[in-house]
Amino acid sequence: MHILFLTDNFPPEVNAPASRTHEHCRQWVASGETVTVVTCAPNFPKGRVFDGYRNRLWQREVIDGIRVIRVWSYITSNEGFAKRVLDYLSFMFAAIVASLFVRRVDIVVATSPQFFTAVAGWVIGALKAVPFVFELRDLWPESIKAVGAMQDSAAIRWLEKLELFLYRRAALIVSVTRSFKDTLVRRGIPAEKIEVVTNGVDISRFSPQPKDQELERELGLQGCFVAGYIGTHGMAHALETLLAAMAELRRRQGGETFRLLLLGDGARKPALQAEAARLELDNVVFVDTVPKEAVARYWSLLDVSIIHLKRTDLFTTVIPSKLFECMGMGIPVLHGVAGESAAIVESEGAGIVFEPENTGQLVDGLLALRADDALRSRLRASALVAAGRYDRGALAARMLECLRRTVRPAATT
After folding, report:
1. Who's near 162: CB < 8 A, 6+ residues apart?
2. What's the pLDDT score for residue 255?
3. Which residues does residue 110 pair with via DSSP β-bridges, in sequence order?
4. Is 262 helix (H, G, I), strand (E, B) or coil?
5. CA angle 200, 204, 206 (to 5 degrees)
6. How many other CB atoms are found less than 10 A from the CB of residue 129?
7. Burial class (CB in 10 A: 0-12, 13-18, 19+), 266
8. What residues contact 213, with CB distance under 8 A and at least 6 apart?
9. Are strands 284-287 and 107-111 parallel, antiparallel or unpaired?
10. What is the pLDDT of residues 46-61, one digit of tens each?
11. What digits encode the pLDDT tens for the residues 7-36?
């Protein structure tokens, strides 16, 4: 089977969509399938093309046996709705053109979060007369309204109609959460065409390891109790809550050895750095995005990982992918996301849940974990057990079987 996969994020980018797509496609190639990925020049999250790449009309490479075609797109930083839409639309059109030159395709998969990529998948599926699969990573455009990037308007309502059109046209929808599936069923999408394949962890890459002493010295973290957030610094993440917690800890604890490590980039990072400077937070360390192969070194520094999203009903339906990496590393979690992901943390015993944007509860959680070695050990052990239930290899195999079932009826007509 030849799988054509459309995504605007792919390694060397290190965000969740890039990692999931790469790890799934790598497993599918190992299972004997042919996989072609159409993507753009790596540029997320800063909106600058990575070293060694150019934003050209067409370029090819092979990554772990995956055929990768990179196309030109309008590249911009993750700021300003209009510019981002231009980014999305340019990739959509370029992906459609490039895909026309990919021969003998059996199925096309297009992944969100933004669904202009899914529009390209539907068009290519129709032109090639093969099934179109919508991998649903985010309820876009609802998430635009949730973070306050755009208010309800005629444009939003048009996007919602397009969203429903794509769900109906897809031969298969692969949702990353059960909550997304429930939402689609309530909106009239047949449950039998929706499969849930959650995010997971590559346990060959993310596993327990001692603190990286060289990195610990470099960042000035020796002897400190280190809490960390690793990921995109965007509007959805409300990381101001973490800064407020560190300010409160400094007031309560004085010279206590708490440190907050913030690793990543995003639209809100400059504002966060400015806020940390205003509050004179010498207990906060900012680190820019690092290559994927180096991320585990930074995870190793953490005594606790903080996962946080803005307090809104929409985010009760999401499961941050970094939760599974924390499990694989055996790092206790302070989880500031309500809903389905909080239920996983509690049922697996992998951490402590606190109310999103509640600084007091976050501070209480940090103090409790700092004071209780036995609690941290218990959470660590439970997280490691849970990680085995979210092994990316097994999840990739499950999605591949869904794709095979979708292709077979088309092959017999």
Report:
1. 115, 119
2. 53
3. 6, 134
4. strand
5. 65
6. 9
7. buried
8. none
9. unpaired
10. 889 999 999 999 999 9
11. 999 999 988 899 999 999 999 999 999 999
Q: Which residues contact 1 (CB under 8 A, 6 or more apart)?
A: 33, 34, 106, 107, 403, 404, 407
Q: Which residue has the tokens 């959509």?
A: 92
The count of C-alpha atoms lying within 13 angstroms of the C-alpha of 136, restricted to the half-sphere facing its C-beta, is 28
Residues 58, 71 contacting (CB under 8 angstroms): yes
Q: What is the DSSP letter of 303?
A: S
CA 296 – CA 164 distance, rounded (Å): 39
* 118 token code pair: 């899914």
Structure tokens at 141: 């455009």
Question: How far are the Cα atoms of 108, 171, 234, 298, 361 from residue 237, in angstroms, in the given order?
Answer: 31, 33, 6, 20, 17
Asked if residues 74 and 90 have their Cβ atoms less than 8 Å apart, the reply is yes
254: left (phi over 0), alpha (psi -120 to 50) or beta: left
Give the Cα-Cα-Cα angle 198, 177, 358 (nearest 5 degrees). Answer: 110
Determine the residue type at 57: L
User: What string of DSSP letters covers 203-258?
Assistant: TTTS------HHHHHHTT-TT-EEEEEES---GGG-THHHHHHHHHHHHHHTT--E
Compute the distance between CA of residue 215 and CA of residue 219 in angstroms, rounded to an integer: 6
Determine contact, residues 4/38, Cβ cutoff 8 Å: yes
* Token pair recorded at residue 354: 């606190």
Q: How far is CA 249 from CA 228, 316, 364, in A?
A: 15, 28, 9
User: Which residue ranges form the domains of the chain, and what is each CATH number?
Assistant: 2-200+391-411 (3.40.50.2000), 213-390 (3.40.50.2000)
Place of tokens 């709705």: 81
Reported pTM:
0.86
Asked if pLDDT for residue 411 goes beyond 70, the answer is no
- Identity of the amino acid at 245: A
Structure tokens at 159: 């996007």
**E strands within 11-160?**
34-40, 58-63, 66-71, 107-111, 132-136
Cα separation, 13 vs 17, in Å, equals: 9
**Distances, alpha carbon 277 to alpha carbons 75, 125, 238, 246, 283, in Å:** 30, 51, 17, 12, 11
What are the residues facing 336 on neighbouring strands? 308
The candidate with the shortest Cα–Cα distance to 279, out of 242, 305, 316, is 242
